[in-house]
Amino acid sequence: MSEQRSRQDYWKANLRLMAFCLSIWFVVSYLFGIILVDQLNAISVGGYRLGFWFAQQGSIYVFVVLIFFYAYRMNKLDRQFDVHED
């Protein structure tokens, strides 16, 4: 029964991590890139309007960071629940 509980805990931790990453993805791509673009365009960073930057470049940078963050956290979770590769 302990192994079953460990698997459930591992899966719940994995789902929490995915929900966190998907929430950031949603905020950056949909909210910043589409919904709030007009409000963000009032802010200029490096000569570019912030809304335009998020829609064109910022979301890509955030996605790449999320990929590395997810891989790092999953490796940590795998070691914590002893399901890592040797």
What does this 3D model show about the protein?
α1 (2-35) packs antiparallel against α3 (50-80). A hairpin with a 2-residue loop joins β1 and β2. The chain has 3 helices and 2 strands. It has helices at residues 2-35, 37-40, 50-80, and strands at residues 44-45, 48-49. Helix content is 80%, strand content 5%. It is elongated, with a radius of gyration of 18 Å. The mean pLDDT is 92. It starts with a helix and ends in a 6-residue tail after the last helix. It has one domain. It has a two-stranded antiparallel ribbon. By secondary structure, the protein is mainly alpha-helical.
Features:
single chain; 86 residues; mainly alpha; two-stranded antiparallel ribbon; 80% helix
What is the mean pLDDT? 92
Number of helices: 3
Radius of gyration: 18 Å
Instruction: Note the main sheet.
Output: 2 strands, antiparallel
Number of DSSP-assigned strands: 2
Low-confidence stretches: none
What is the subunit organization of this protein? single chain
Strand content: under 5%
Q: Structural class of the helices, strands and pairings?
A: mainly alpha
Shape: elongated
User: Whole-Å distance between the termini?
Assistant: 25 Å
Instruction: Give me the side-by-side strand order of the main sheet.
Output: 1-2
Number of domains: 1
Strand/helix succession: HHEEH
- Helical content, roughly? over 70%
